[in-house]
């Protein structure tokens, strides 16, 4: 039986019932793909439901404020996905008169849509024969065919894309693409896959050569840096605080946070004077301070580890842009800040 037919047969029995698999609406399929780009289904499903409920059409999403979109996305991480989602929605509504692009080539023009996402939407929503290659697909193909080319190398990306294109079912591209991705997620898992029940076991090179644990191969490129963050939680007697929008480019762009000062090391309560407060209003305002957490809160991101302290600053006067404590939760904030807001008693 052909490779793709085995996958399709397996999928017909083993697939999970997920809401975006019950529709051909490109808006919903696009939304699910963006959410699941770097997120597992279990974590992403509640966010998908929330977005569909609040923004049932692409027109609703386009009309929303970026702050509202980021707030709904809060906790999902990789916030550029939300910003790109919103930008693309406005582009489709304003430039394309609400008509969703219906080809792989045109889908690539959307902000935040790359080869994988364009292939997924084109095949699932419009039946185009466009092969998907994501982490799950890399794993299935590298193991089954015994390919040790690094999946994140230029050569590997081309090799696996070409192989995927040669295998996709021309009659059922949508079903096949979903099948191979689901197979990688449920059957050919990263660790300890159950090869005894695998329908592809008889032809799997990795199983025959005992390479299941070593494939796929991935080059280590990401250098993790360490940073030391000091958030200044500035409070006045009127229960107002300073909460700033991050405007610089980065993963937290347009999210809100307390005034931030980076330091060269983790600081103790006796080292407060090492903080560079020259560019803050505190330089000319009397204040008292205390340290919320003596032990750093470590927040690990894909490319950096943040060692964080929250300094409680009590002062009689805050700048006019200060907001009420009650309104803090209305603003989209990184998980690191959100967790603090849930625990700290103002």
From TrEMBL:
Alphabetic keyword roster:
4Fe-4S, DNA damage, DNA repair, Glycosidase, Hydrolase, Iron, Iron-sulfur, Metal-binding
- The signal peptide, as residue positions, is none
Its Enzyme Commission number? 3.2.2.31
Q: Cross-referenced InterPro entries, in alphabetical order? A: A/G_AdeGlyc_MutY, DNA_glycosylase, HhH-GPD_domain, HhH_base_excis_C, HhH_motif, MIG/MutY, MutY_C, NUDIX_hydrolase-like_dom_sf
Enzyme's top EC category: hydrolase
Catalyzed reaction equations: Hydrolyzes free adenine bases from 7,8-dihydro-8-oxoguanine:adenine mismatched double-stranded DNA, leaving an apurinic site
User: Required cofactors, per record?
Assistant: [4Fe-4S] cluster
Sequence ranges assigned to domain HhH-GPD in this UniProt record? 35-186
The question of whether Ubl conjugation is a record keyword is answered with: no
Keyword hit for DNA damage: yes
What does the note accompanying the cofactor annotation read?
Answer: Binds 1 [4Fe-4S] cluster.
Pfam families in alphabetical order? HHH, HhH-GPD, NUDIX_4
Q: What family is this protein classified in?
A: Belongs to the Nth/MutY family.
The record describes the protein's role as: Adenine glycosylase active on G-A mispairs. MutY also corrects error-prone DNA synthesis past GO lesions which are due to the oxidatively damaged form of guanine: 7,8-dihydro-8-oxoguanine (8-oxo-dGTP).
User: NCBIfam families, from UniProt?
Assistant: mutY (TIGR01084)
The molecule here is called: Adenine DNA glycosylase
Query: Lineage in the entry?
Result: Bacteria, Pseudomonadati, Bacteroidota, Flavobacteriia, Flavobacteriales
